[in-house]
Design goal:
mainly alpha; 2 domains; two-stranded antiparallel ribbon; 21 helices; 8 strands; globular
Length: 592
């Protein structure tokens, strides 16, 4: 395996190479990341249950002019602090209320995180190592995907990346201003997602300080006095006090505005509840393993090759005197503790592990640099070949799952062929030991792949799972019908309906909705809960269906609205489409 001296070579100060300086590279990375994150950002409408929650909540916050807490369906939604929603509101002010503006803060966070990874790591690494790390981060499909939807995870990841790199610079290079910067960024993270950010950063710092306080990183020589002294130099009490001073005004404001409901819902139910798994999304401890392998594909394949390299780093006795090796140990603690922290929490979502992406990219960038210097081709060759195979079979697999009509198959194949050509070129350069060129082509190809296929996958997913809901809500609006939702509220329905939607959860609510309002009274219901139609005190009548979603009329005059009696028969043909009832596409006044 590559010599460890390739990693621990003495650090050279940044000098322009070929007329390009570090700040110019940072600008180029900003442009490249913008081309990956920004194009087609608003093409796909809101998708449930991801960015519709955040975009609709910010829209209601702006409409109601109430900014202390968030809303869903015009009722307080107390699951999150408001800072990220303020960013979306600001985007609405600049670009109007639309999907592009709703997703822009997440996309900008992803762009800035790529640039930050390069700029911060250049404090320790060579230009090529830092550039490889930033390029790898920009080519991680999961990282790019989360940055193209309206979620808090990408802005949170940016704040944690800034926090952890700043702590690393302080601990390794003793630059006090970065300690202040670290606590400021951590305070912003607390305002985006809550106090769990302090717990996660604390675990990462504890792991790093504990390891680097041991001479030679020999676990048999633990010096607890040295560990405590190293922890004390972080000024933890002053840092926590600063975070409290910066964040308490908002949390006190939210507490007072909601008469204590925010404190109870957010701190006790959302934070503590998710820790012990009493909220939702409870998964087994190993759940993130396939998510990480698939979300970071094909780079995740290199994990099989880098263990000897990491073992050599661990065995270096002078590791505590080498700033680059200390950064790699810090990145390893960052990666390991973040993965273990979220794996230990029963509540899991695939987006939660995004904060470990920069650490993964940093370690991988240095590993690939060591391969380049040692002229080891097998790992990069394997990545290129597996990616090429994925490009060949991917369009057909995706079309079979999402695109039954093969409407996008031609576009998928065309893009895949072009990317395949670039991948073959990368394979050829790697095979002939021109590894630098091959690695550069591979990183660029994977970034272009993310820029093309991530938005395409969102479009395909939307067409299959989301479009029927949007179509039915649009039809109800066109017919001036009152609309209610049965069993569960998809936030996108309120986003399109632009007013409060009654949520029917029991028989009394169903009968009340059917009796109390004038005009057409329709309900939106999924076909997996059609049995609850028995809650009505009159015979429900089908208006139409689209996909797995239905509109039913339950008002007194529903027989005059062009509806069909519901007789409880629900059969499906081979394509899993219900028969015997009207389809939305066949409604006579759909395009009037």
């Amino acid at each position: 395996m590559a010599s460890i001296s390739n990693v621990s070579a003495s650090h050279q100060q940044s000098k322009p190479v070929g007329g390009i300086s570090d700040w110019q590279i940072a600008v180029l990375l900003f442009v490249a990341a913008s081309l990956v994150f920004i194009p087609f950002l608003g093409t796909t409408p809101m998708i449930d249950p991801t960015d519709s929650f955040f975009t609709e909540s910010a829209r209601e916050m702006l409409e109601l002019k109430s900014f202390a807490c968030t809303f869903i369906n015009y009722e307080p939604w107390l699951d999150k602090p408001a800072l990220h929603f303020w960013f979306i509101v600001a985007a609405f002010k600049l670009f109007g209320i639309n999907e592009f503006a709703g997703r822009l803060p997440s996309a900008l966070a992803g762009i800035l995180e790529v640039v930050a990874t390069y700029c911060f790591s250049r404090q320790f690494l060579t230009r090529r190592q830092s550039l490889l790390s930033a390029a790898i981060l920009l080519s991680l499909p999961l990282f790019v995907s989360v940055g193209r939807v309206s979620l808090t995870d990408e802005p949170l990841s940016l704040c944690l990346t800034t926090t952890l790199f700043s702590f690393a610079i302080f601990l390794i290079k003793k630059r006090f201003k970065f300690l202040i910067f670290a606590y400021l960024a951590l305070a912003v993270a607390v305002l985006i997602k809550g106090p769990f950010a302090v717990v996660l950063v604390g675990l990462i710092l504890a792991a790093y300080v504990g390891l680097t306080s041991i001479p030679g990183i020999d676990l048999r020589r633990i010096d607890f006095r040295r560990i405590l002294l190293n922890v004390w130099q972080l000024h933890p009490f002053a840092g926590v006090l600063g975070i409290l001073l910066l964040t308490s005004p908002y949390y006190i404001w939210a507490h007072n505005e909601t008469h204590g409901a925010f404190t109870t819902a957010f701190f006790f139910r959302q934070n503590f509840g998710r820790m012990v798994g009493v909220v939702n999304h409870v998964r087994p401890f190993w759940w993130y393993l396939p998510i990480a392998v698939g979300g970071f594909f094909p780079w995740s394949l290199l994990i099989a090759f880098w263990w000897p390299w990491i073992a050599k780093i661990w065995q270096r006795k002078e590791i505590l005197n080498d700033k680059r090796l200390q950064l790699l140990v810090f990145a390893a603690c960052w990666l390991t503790m973040t993965f273990c922290f979220f794996s230990a929490i029963p509540t899991k979502l695939y987006t939660y592990i995004i904060p470990l992406s920069p650490a993964f990219a940093l370690l991988l960038g240095c590993f690939i640099d060591s391969l380049i210097k040692a002229r080891k081709t097998l790992p990069l060759y394997a990545v290129s070949v597996f990616f090429a195979v994925g490009l060949i079979v991917g369009p057909f697999v995706v079309s079979k799952i999402f695109d039954k009509a093969y409407a996008f198959l031609g576009l998928e194949i065309t893009a895949a062929v072009l990317l395949l050509g670039a991948t073959v070129a990368a394979v050829n350069f790697v095979r002939t030991r021109k590894i630098v060129t091959g690695a550069a082509i591979l990183c660029s190809t994977l970034s272009v792949f993310c820029a093309i296929f991530v938005p395409l996958m969102f479009t395909l997913y939307y067409n299959v799972y989301q479009l029927p809901i949007d179509n039915l809500v649009a039809y109800a609006i066109k017919r001036n019908a009152n609309l209610a939702v049965v069993n569960y509220l998809e936030p996108s329905t309120t986003y399109h309906y632009k007013r409060k939607l009654p949520l029917i959860k029991d028989e009394a609510e169903m009968q009340s909705y059917g009796d109390d309002r004038a005009g057409m009274q329709w309900i939106l219901i999924s076909d997996d809960v059609l049995s609850v139609l028995a809650w009505t005190n009159r015979s429900p009548r089908a208006v139409c269906y689209d996909g797995h979603w239905w509109l039913f009329a339950i008002d007194r005059n529903c027989k005059t609205e062009g509806t069909v009696p519901w007789v409880g028969l629900y059969t499906k043909d081979g394509s899993h489409k219900p028969v015997s009832y009207p389809k939305l596409a066949d409604m006579p006044n759909l395009r009037d």
